[in-house]
Design brief:
eight-stranded mixed sheet; single chain
């Protein structure tokens, strides 16, 4: 049976003991090729597995153009952490230990970091860099668009306290769960990094600070800032740049 180019599948999470919905976007020539790299594309707060295909309905055509499988998991409002407060919120474990093995065993993937990347928007931008920085053995490239790359200036927003506890009582925990403090995880096997943010975005300042810290540590990365706000118009434009970046990474990695 020929696989659908855009499909919605359920993957059971043993760590959370529940099914997790995922949208899978395949290149149109999926049946004719041996294997494909995979981009894990993460949604933002209040989104779901279908958010990205709604933001950019042209993703199937881009998947075909670049020869990439795109996987969009439903991360609820998790920020893609394993919550130290809620044992049922284990989305880092889900992506790393459950979803990636499932995708590699059920689809024609390049099951190696050279063929695997992760990025996302807003909360998912945090997730893309959180997972990419902490699991460089699995992701050869990672990114973020309009990402909440430092959560600490926003202690009362987006249900983060449900996963981490109140900021005032748990500052160490918040320090340990913000992307900007994960740079010590980046070693010689650093992933290729791309992130961007619009100049009218409320996350613009923390993205600028992340860029400065990466420069201070001499960590190679691509950073773009351009006019734009925290909205789907910006993300639709941004993901096209990022898909080109990941395509070029996958192409170089295969040479």
């Amino acid at each position: 049976m020929q696989a659908k180019q855009v499909d919605t599948i359920s993957v059971h999470s043993p760590s959370m003991d529940m099914p997790v919905e995922n949208v899978i976007i395949l290149p149109a020539d999926y049946a004719r090729e041996a294997s494909f790299p995979v981009l894990y594309l993460l949604h933002g707060y209040a989104g779901n597995a279908k958010s990205w295909i709604r933001i950019h309905p042209g993703l199937p055509e881009l998947a075909t153009r670049y020869g990439i499988i795109i996987v969009c998991p439903d991360g609820k409002n998790s920020w893609y952490w394993d919550s130290p407060v809620d044992g049922k919120m284990r989305y880092e474990t889900f992506v790393i230990r459950e979803l990636i093995p499932y995708i590699d065993s059920h689809y024609k993937t390049i099951a190696d970091k050279a063929g695997r990347a992760v990025t996302g928007l807003s909360m998912g931008g945090h997730g893309g860099l959180w997972l990419g920085f902490r699991h460089a053995d699995l992701f050869g490239a990672c990114g973020s668009t309009s990402g909440g790359v430092d959560i600490r200036p926003f202690p009362d927003n987006w249900e983060m306290s449900k996963a981490l506890g109140q900021y005032g009582d748990n500052r160490t925990r918040w320090n340990e769960h913000t992307v900007i403090n994960q740079l010590d995880k980046i070693q010689s096997d650093a992933p290729a990094i791309i992130f961007d943010c619009g100049t009218d975005d409320f996350f613009y300042e923390v993205n600028e600070t992340l860029h400065d810290k990466l420069l201070e540590k001499h960590i190679p990365h691509d950073y773009l800032s351009r006019p734009g706000a925290h909205n789907s118009v910006y993300w639709k434009n941004s993901i096209e740049y990022q898909l080109l970046f990941f395509y070029l990474f996958f192409h170089r990695a295969s040479l």
